[in-house]
């Protein structure tokens, strides 16, 4: 059985207008710029917080708070040296700081703490590093003297000061 074609099927099809790609390109560009901006804020958050301290609360709220003082750095402390100078007992603390991370790091100020036999801090001395920044795998030495420390001291510890980054370190990055 042969069917007849419906009326008007022999007419030529009208060409359709080509679709514009402008909206797709525009949305792709918007997404790329947005993601790039988020990436830049993430990677430079420490610098942003150092320049705009009021942003620290926002970064902490979203889980991207500043890194702990000395993050990515390792302290290596030698045994203390005991001497006398001008009739006073002098304990010299030496060592070095190594950048063990994969990016340049700010070196914060350091603290030497002297503890008694009950692990109570009996002396605390802050000192600045010899360089405010370390490049990848770079290391710097440090030394500080404790002049006439308390005789009750039984242990010495060197740590990074969580409250005081190295002065003007952010401007050197």
Written overview of the protein:
With 173 residues, this protein is of the alpha+beta class. It has two domains: 40 residues; 94 residues, Immunoglobulin-like (Sandwich), CATH 2.60.40. Helices cover 20% and strands 31% of the residues. The protein contains three helices and nine strands, in the order αααβββββββββ. The strands form three sheets. Strands 1, 2, 3 and 8 form a four-stranded antiparallel beta sheet that branches. A three-stranded antiparallel beta sheet has the order 6-5-9, with no helix packed on it. It has a two-stranded antiparallel sheet with strand order 4-7. The protein starts with 21 loop residues before the first helix and ends in a 13-residue tail after the last strand. The C terminus is likely disordered.
Brief digest:
By secondary structure, this protein is an alpha+beta fold.
Label this structure with key terms.
173 residues; alpha+beta; Immunoglobulin-like; 2 domains; 4-stranded antiparallel sheet; 3-stranded antiparallel sheet; 3 helices; 9 strands; 20% helix; disordered C terminus
How is the secondary structure organized here?
Blueprint: H1 22-43, H2 45-51, H3 56-61, E1 73-77, E2 81-85, E3 88-99, E4 105-106, E5 110-115, E6 121-127, E7 133-134, E8 139-147, E9 155-160
User: Which H/E pattern describes the elements?
Assistant: HHHEEEEEEEEE
Overall pLDDT = 86
Total DSSP E strands = 9
Largest sheet: 4 strands, antiparallel
Radius of gyration: 32 Å
CATH class of the largest domain, anyone? Mainly Beta
Number of helices: 3
- At CATH level 2, the architecture of the largest domain is Sandwich
Structural class: alpha+beta
Fraction of residues in helix:
10-25%
* Count of distinct structural domains: 2
Low-confidence stretches: 166-173
CATH topology of the largest domain: Immunoglobulin-like
Q: Give the end-to-end Cα distance, rounded to a whole number of Å.
A: 86 Å
Estimate what percentage of residues fall within beta strands.
25-35%
Tell me, what's the shape?
rod-shaped
